[in-house]
Write a structure and sequence with these properties.
Strand content: 5-15%
Number of domains: 2
Structural class: alpha/beta
Number of helices: 9
Helix content: 40-55%
Number of strands: 8
Strand order of the largest sheet: 1-8-7-2-5-6
Mean pLDDT: 90
CATH topology of the largest domain: Rossmann fold
CATH architecture of the largest domain: 3-Layer(aba) Sandwich
CATH class of the largest domain: Alpha Beta
Low-confidence stretches: 1-22
Radius of gyration: 17 Å
Length: about 210
């Protein structure tokens, strides 16, 4: 893992002494999909089936290009001319179908172990574009719910990543200074959101 300015993850941990109470980092903010949990296959299959219910096709290549974006943004891009009601139908179907695909998700064991280590001594937040219903299912499935002081879901903000609204709200709830906080992100969309909120970003590669 590397920071947005190229630092190695191990060097960053040593530099900020993150595991020590009272260390320099005030808060750690995490993305969910692709960062803490690999949900790519589960998300694709749920969206593919939701698209099919509405008479549309969704290919793996099309979906891959949407990674990190909110479905409120990418569904109209994939289906030009679709009305807001049609978008809502697909989003609701995806939420309903997602539970059937949860067994296809896999935790990022190394990053989750790190989160468990630092959660007792640092303020932690989850900032995700996932809708709260599906997001809560993932957290519960992987035992991550108790590890966060604050959770901000995609349906709890007006503007999704790359807008910094979610991160700014989490920082406000945590009472944390962005200049003394660190975000973990896997997508360019998420990285842009965290940087716009004034955070240093540690980029998590696909695992």
């Amino acid at each position: 893992m590397q920071t947005s300015d190229g630092h190695d993850a191990i060097d960053l941990g040593e530099r900020y002494d993150m595991a020590r109470p009272g260390g320099s980092v005030q808060a750690l903010l995490f993305d969910l999909d692709g960062t803490l949990v690999d949900t790519r296959e589960a998300n694709y299959l749920a969206y593919r089936n939701a698209f099919a219910e509405s008479g549309h096709e969704l290919t793996p290549e099309q979906f891959a290009a949407t990674w990190g974006r909110d479905s409120r943004d990418f569904i109209p891009d994939l289906l030009p001319g679709i009305d807001p009601g049609g978008v809502d139908v697909i989003r609701a179907a995806k939420s309903r179908l997602y539970a059937e695909e949860l067994h296809r998700t896999a935790a990022n064991d190394a990053l989750v172990a790190f989160l468990r280590l630092v959660a007792p001594t640092h303020r932690t937040a989850l900032v995700s574009t996932a809708k709260s219903g599906n997001g809560d299912q993932i957290l519960q499935a992987h035992g991550l719910t108790p590890l966060f002081d604050v959770v901000v879901w995609g349906d709890q903000v007006t503007r999704s990543k790359p807008d910094p609204e979610g991160y700014l709200r989490a920082l406000e709830l945590l009472g944390a200074d962005p200049a003394a906080s660190l975000a973990f992100e896997d997508s360019e969309t998420g990285r842009q959101a965290a940087l716009a909120a004034g955070l240093m970003v540690l980029e998590v590669p696909h695992f």
